[in-house]
Amino acid sequence: MHDTARGVAELARPTNCVAAAVLTGTGAFVAGAAGAAVPAAVAAVVTAFAVAAGNAINDYFDREIDAVNRPDRPIPRGAVSPRGALAVAAAWFLVAVAFAALLPPLAVAIAAVNLVALVTYTTVFKGTPGLGNALVSYLVGSTFLFGGAAVGEPGSVVVLALLAGLSTFTREVIKDVEDVAGDREEGLRTLPIAVGERRALWIGAAALVVAVAASPVPYFTGTFGGAYLLLVAVADAAMLYACYEGFGDPATAQRRFKYGTFLAAAAFVVGRAALLI
Ligand SMILES: CC(C)=CCC/C(C)=C/CC/C(C)=C/CC/C(C)=C/COC[C@H](O)COP(=O)(O)O
Ligand SMILES: CC(C)=CCC/C(C)=C/CC/C(C)=C/CC/C(C)=C/COP(=O)(O)OP(=O)(O)O
Ligand SMILES: [Mg+2]
Fold it and tell me: Mind telling me which residue stretches traverse the membrane in this protein (predicted)?
């Protein structure tokens, strides 16, 4: 029983849920007006349960690949049955839908698109070179728009959505290079399998260079204070170095890249707070 409970928690990938919810909250915080705390909290809850459901359904459909790439995942190791994972995913989706219904129309629309994307990602998009990466990148970027839409001001966080989406694309490519063995065995045509690992990594690097070059924009548009530039410069350097590492050690690189994105998210919060103090 203990491993089942642990397995269900692992299916959600709680770090992703919290990180994505923080991004939604950041989007609301940056875009927010007075009294935005309640819709921001509701949107963060929607995001957390949507990501949990998306992760669980991804593991359900990935169970054969994960038996090769990640045998320690809950389903391949036997901690949660495939049907159990599907049931948990459905329950988490229902919670996300129930809370999303409390939000303004544009936020509901974003949630509806994202929930459909999460259900179809693994079976429809993941095996198409670059398309699955682009969809996950959109989903991550959309958390800022979702938070902004929850408080009625999505326009002010479009740049943040683009920065998050572009850098996520880079990390997704590095993760696909790491997973080439299992994905090839499963007949998946991911970007590295379709165009070669090095060319895929260069495509990912190009996306990151655009994101890094654009990362000072929120300062120049007056969205963030000066402290943002210092913090985002460190985050940019961390992501650029992790991208370089991806050419030699994608497994380490993709983990380090994730910490760089967390630092960037922190730069958004500090940058906005610095302006408001
Ligand atoms: C250049 C610049 C300033 C970029 C902004 C970077 C930024 C704030 C990126 C956001 C990335 C982030 C913290 C996403 C939340 C976590 C999440 C849901 C990521 C997507 O997960 C998909 C991934 O394939 C899951 O794999 P794993 O992490 O190994 O479980
Ligand atoms: C704002 C709302 C309503 C939702 C946001 C939803 C978000 C932010 C989703 C983030 C991306 C995500 C968690 C997608 C779910 C599918 C998933 C885990 C993709 C990555 O899986 P794989 O490509 O199989 O890689 P792994 O090896 O990590 O499983
Ligand atoms: Mg997977």
Answer: 28-53, 80-100, 200-220, 226-244, 256-275
